[in-house]
What does this fold into?
Amino acid sequence: MRKSFYASQTIYSGPGPHRDILMRGGVEPRSIARWISSFMQHPRGAESQERGFGPEQAADLELRSVAELLSVAVNRDLLGGDSAQPKVGGVCRDFALLAVSVFRERGTPARLRVGFADYLVPGRWEDHWLCEWHDGGRWKRLDVEFAAIDGVSVDALAVPRERFVTASEAWFRIKDEPEIAWRFGVSSLDLGGEWFVAGSLFREMAALRRLELKPWDYWGLSENLSRDSTDWPQQARTTLDELASRLSNADADGDGEPEAIADWPLPKRVVSFPHGEPVPVVLRHS
It folds into this structure.
């Protein structure tokens, strides 16, 4: 039987020595999300507003692999339910990657999706990453952070496509309506605009090719783009339009390798901004 391109682990999604712990998440998407939220904490989430987000948790934001995230959870004794230690710090990408790992470990195709959600901040399309898993017929989008709580204005177990747009979909929306570009980004950090979506295109391409990066990773063209898009050379726009078009063709219901972007080069290094200052990172590849 053919194995899906997205059903096997990568160097970043693999649980390493913590497979047994990973499988505690259960089999249903909501139970998986609740399990992850029991030991993970977002720096800008409701829990952080109530309890704070300490330096130890801020350091966790640099962790890239599921194995590393689970190691920290084990070391802080967070999986028993009564630990006084701080939860593991992580953003939407980390929540989603843990769920991707659970699905893949069971042989279910799963992948990260990079895009923007309209249900987090009124009037904005906030940078957000989801876990997309294949039920044998189609892809379903799971918002791991919000599937664990009540009161969200969207079905977090099957996020509608009109409430979450991928980076390539956002790019074409902005191309048609340049005046809405400011709505796309991270409003709490005053980050947004066409340059932000351009960086997301590269991260979306990498995610679809099973290289799970961080939301603040930049390389190649995206590394040097001016935040004032009126300064961009035409060649840059041509390249970004091509990448967005290829990504649109790659977003299909099939679970095989997306041929439309299979020859787009992946980075060996990125410039990362986990705390606002640039940090060079040499990547590991599966």
